[in-house]
Structures are given as C-alpha cells and as structure tokens.
Amino acid sequence: MATETISACTGSDLLQPISEITNLPLDQVNFVVCQLCALLTAVWFRLYLHPSKTSPFVRHVVATLLGIYFALFCFGWYALHFLLQSGITYGIMILTGVEHMHKYCLVVALGYLSFCQITRVYVFDYGMYSADFTGPMMVITQKITSVAFEIHDGECVCVWLKFRIHTGMKRMPSLLEYFSYNCNFMGILAGPTSSYNDYIAFIEGTPYRHRDLETKGKVNGKSRLNDPSPNTEVIRKLATCFISLLVFLSVCKVCPVERNVDDDFIATTPFYAQVVYLYLSMLTTRPKYYFVWTLADAINNAAGFGFNGYDSNGLPRWDLISNLRIMNIELATSFKVFLDNWNIQTAHWLKRVCYERCPYNPTAATFLLSAMWHGAYPGYYLTFLTGIVITLAARAVRHNVRPYFLGSPALKFVYDVITWAATQIAICYTVIPFVLLSVGPSLKFYRSWYFCIHIGCILLAIVLPVKPRHLRLKEQQPAVQPSLESTDSNSNQKQKAT
C-alpha cells in the first residue's frame, strides 16, 4: 500500500509517515500541509513584509520563491510546467502587438494546458487525481489570459469603454511581477484567480486607494482604518473549512455517486427515490470544494489580500477574490444563481474573456470554453453541453413564467420553492457526468432517466420565446449610451484640468 502511495505522488515523500497513519494519499497530505504552511506564511508575510516595512521588489521575490517551493514540494518536476507556460506567454506578449496579444495568449495558454491534461489522462493514468499538476495550471491559465486581456483593454482604442475603466492596464508587467502574479505562494496550489491590477496594488500597499474605497469606510461621518485586520474573517473561514472537511469525511462514502448507475439500484428503486438519492449523492461531493476554495481564500486574506471595502454597517468585506457563497449555492432558485455563486472567479474570467466579447451564441461559446479549460474527460463535455440546454430553458422560464408569480408574497414563495427544487435536481442531473468522467456511465445514467430533462428543456427553449442577446443589448443601449458619454466628458474635463 505504501509503495502505491509513493508512486502515485511525484512530489516530496517527506510526509509519507503521515500518509500511512491517516490512510490518505500522499499527494493529498502534501497539498493540505502546504496550504496550512502557506496560511502561517501569509500571516508572517502580512506582519513582517508589510508594504510599510519593505519594498514591492522584496515582496514579489519572497512570494514567488515560496510559491515555487510549495509547487515543487507537491508536484516535483511537473511544477516546471508552471514556469514554462508563464515564460512562453510572457514572450508572446513582448513580441506581439497589443491588438492581438490577448488572442495569442488565450490560444497558447489553453493549448498548453490541454496538452498537459490530455497526456495526463490518456498517457499516464485515466481517472488519476493523484499528483494532478494540471489543477494549478488551470488557475495560471486564467491569470495569463487575464493579464493579456487587461493590457489589451487598457491600450487598444477599439475596446469597449467599460472594459477600459474596470480592467485596463497602462503598462506591461515586468518579468518578476508577471511570475509573482502567476506563481505566488498564496494562490499557486488552489488559486483563486484575481485581477492583475488588484494583485499589484496589494503588493505595493495601495489596494484601498486603487479601488477608491476610503469613502465607503466611514460610519457616522468617521473614517475607518485604512488597513483593516483580516483576523476575524480568517477565523470564520477556517471554521467553515473545518465543518466542510468534517462533513465530507463523514458522509462522502455513505452516498457514493456511482450507485446512481448501478444496475440493481436502477432496477429496484422507485424513480422518486432515485431523484432523492441523486440529490443527496451530489450534495455530499460539494464540501470538498468548499474546503479547498475557502482555505485558499483564507490564505489570501491572512496575507492581507482580498479586502473589498465596507458593508452598510461599516464592517470590512474580505470577498474580493472569494470563490463561492455557500448559502447562495444551497438555496439557489435558478440555474444562473447557482453558477454565479459557484467558482465565482472562474465565472468572472469566462465572462471577461468570452461571454461579453462573443458576438454570436455567447452562452454556448462560454460553456464550450469552460469544458476545454476543465480538461480532457468526456464527462466534462457532456456536463457543459447539457448546461447549455438547461441554461436556455431556465432563461426562457424566467422571462415568461416568473412575472405571473410576483403578484403576492405567497405566490412568490411558491415559485421560489418550486424553482429551488427544480434547480437542485437540474444541477445534479447536469453535473453527474462531471463526476463519473466517462461516456458509458454518464449515458447509462441519462438513459435510466429517459433523457427527460434534456427533452423537457429543449421543448421549453423552443416553446417559450426569448429575445436574442444582441437585441436585448440594443434595447438597453439608449439607456447606457448617455452614461458612457458622461464618463467620456468627465474624463476629458479631468484631463484638461490636469
């Protein structure tokens, strides 16, 4: 058993005794220990390498070197892919023009990631999650393309104004800044993705001025501290991690997802019981993501990264780079609400690089890009192709049916209950190929359900009309145009005054 565990991990075997004691794969032990070390290091980084005590250069160097060390500890020489992918795309940004660099970087970074995912799945070990070095590469791919798009949006005169305002960059990052952003110790293993502008502002010690948040930090006319402590938020998120891990370890084996495609289960279980079991089995898979993403968020917060202004009560918000909102996920009453609160930073990335820029069929294009980004397993593509159909149907229902239930609180409550149940079942139905990975078991499950949700959603999307996105945007344009012109005018007045 020990030999198998060691051979399944390409990283350090220093923690092999802990792996044997806990009966957990060595790569998982390495990951958790490195993340806990990163949490402690983040506290030290915030206290002793604070921007008021040291230079951005030192902070960049330390963050990068620690990130590379953690990557080598977890993945061994596979971690060199992180540096190689970043180096190649940096060269592309240097050599190509601003007008097209974002397209080249997207193609090269996504192509490099896909090559690594395909070889890992089909050359080394199909279904192997141990030593999955492509996980960090997925986040780095997002960061690489985000930088390229931000530079393009900041300097290309042809880009939409709203992109230039919110995400534009005015200069090319240095090589150190680029590697620090991609490979810093806070996000090298589990992310999350953040805006390059936000990261650089954090390193330089100007995140609050950068985001113009001082005015929001006033309560009863009194200014709040400009550097709020993240300790309370970090403790809260660590408590969430502990509960999520406890739930996952205690219930994940009670309702295995594979039972949904077991012949005896399908033959002997009533359909309503199969629906309930599907929900429960998929519900038990989510806490591991809650644990990983919340811990990653806590690490960044502990370093002082993630402050997002103050709420209406004057309390600091630390959700700038948060990746999920658990209660919104579990109580979601629409497919869109669920997706908007699950893997939030990835959703923002997909929206920035694809959905808001694709002139035709942006929904289908975004789902297909997400499938390519996730990996080479056929189950991923079945999930996202199903997601396209369900998204179109959910949009049609919302536009055509929801208005009839807004007349009274009672009707609205009935609508919310029905849509909650429908959303949760639709999510489980959509995501099960993502967990099963293979085509055979996934299609077996859908056949056992007679493809009923596929068929129902296609009929809803056909019967209930919804205006195409470009027509909806055209209707909104008269309302948006004055605000854009006002922004241009204010910008010109400021330039003249300067």
From TrEMBL:
The chain crosses the membrane at residues 29-49, 61-84, 104-123, 379-397, 417-436, 448-466. Residues 478-498 have a biased composition (Polar residues). It is found in: Endoplasmic reticulum membrane. Signal peptide: none annotated. Pfam families: MBOAT. Keywords: Acyltransferase, Endoplasmic reticulum, Membrane, Transferase, Transmembrane, Transmembrane helix. One of its GO terms (molecular function) is acyltransferase activity. Coiled coil: none annotated. InterPro entries: LPLAT_7/PORCN-like, MBOAT_fam. It is a multi-pass membrane protein. GO terms for cellular component: endoplasmic reticulum membrane. Residues 476-498 are annotated as: Disordered. GO terms for biological process: lipid modification. Its main location: endoplasmic reticulum. This is Membrane-bound O-acyltransferase domain-containing protein 2-like. It comes from Sinocyclocheilus anshuiensis.
